[in-house]
Amino acid sequence: ETGVTQSPTHLIKTRGQQVTLRCSSQSGHNTVSWYQQALGQGPQFIFQYYREEKNGRGNFPPRFSGLQFPNYSSELNVNALELDDSALYLCASSLHPGSYEQYFGPGTRLTVT
Amino acid sequence: DQQVKQNSPSLSVQEGRISILNCDYTNSMFDYFLWYKKYPAEGPTFLISISSIKDKNEDGRFTVFLNKSAKHLSLHIVPSQPGDSAVYFCAAGDGNQFYFGTGTSLTVIP
Description:
Structural class of chain B: mainly beta
Distance between the termini of chain B: 38 Å
Largest sheet of chain B: 6 strands, mixed
Mean pLDDT of chain B: 94
Radius of gyration of chain A: 13 Å
Low-confidence stretches of chain B: none
Strand content of chain B: over 45%
Shape of chain A: globular
Number of strands of chain B: 11
Largest interface: A-B, 24 and 24 residues
Strand content of chain A: over 45%
Number of helices of chain A: 0
Mean pLDDT of chain A: 93
Largest sheet of chain A: 7 strands, mixed
Radius of gyration of chain B: 13 Å
Low-confidence stretches of chain A: none
Shape of chain B: globular
Oligomer: heterodimer
């Protein structure tokens, strides 16, 4: 059974640029959630995708967008990067939206300079 | 506004003793509560959960207690082992969205 994987591991971008982060969900999981974890904080919910449709969204601006593909892998896109976007971005997959057990990937560390 | 709070950033415990990690929440509509453990350079790992219809859930050395009237939950680890040293996050939600605390770093001293 393959766990949740994320790429890239680390990324450095300049303010104003755009970034795409990728996530492969655990085998058999059709739901993917994205979280932002700033330094010293807990993960904050960005949004969730279920079978290629957005299933919920946290309090993040529209420049945070996402996609889920037919194989249930997912992308997080952030436009017009700001310094405060520097954080660890975590992807978590689950069997279905109502499943409370989420399996997290190792995250992508994004640094915006 | 922080809906889930872990007021102790760190905790040190001797091996073999009990570790108690605490968590408070503000939203009485939350009906499911989770604890995650996180090692450096890894994503959080699900540890144990409890629904609002229960006040205790046990899994081996780990027990979670829920006090709905106080909006408080705690994680007990007995006996604590050096491998338990990690950051522990509590999370609370209604199934659609989970809110995480800021974490407590547990160090178990051999």
